Amino acid sequence: MSSCAKASIRLKFSKDKQLTTLLNALGPETNSPPAHRANVKLEKDESFLVMLVEAEDTIALRATLNAYLHWINSTLNVIDTIDNAQLRRSISKK
């Protein structure tokens, strides 16, 4: 693919658990993308998730960024929900 649109995004995380979970959750998407108009590479750089996107055009770039940012947000919401449920459970046992 000869790309003409690129983006690099760095997201900082205070918890390594969140970053590791995101990399594990999104890894399969980077290995077999739903469309062949864009490629995504995810990396961990200390407390940052680095997302590198290369696309054939700006439309594919925007769609890919939107999809990954949505997946990141959804995954973080699930992590928060699980953490809150575990906290409530541990409080109720006391």
Write structural notes for this entry.
The chain is an alpha+beta fold. It has a single domain (5-92), classed as Alpha-D-phosphohexomutase, C-terminal domain (TATA-Binding Protein), CATH 3.30.310.50. Helices cover 54% and strands 26% of the residues. It contains two helices and three strands. The protein has helices at residues 16-31, 58-92, and strands at residues 5-12, 38-45, 48-55. It has a three-stranded antiparallel β-sheet with strand order 1-3-2, with helices on one face. Strand 2 (38-45) and strand 3 (48-55) form a beta hairpin. Helix 1 packs across helix 2 (58-92). The longest helix is centred in the C-terminal third of the chain and has 35 residues, at 58-92.
Short recap of the structure:
With 94 residues, this protein is α+β, with helices and mostly antiparallel strands. It is 54% helix and 26% strand. β2 and β3 form a beta hairpin.
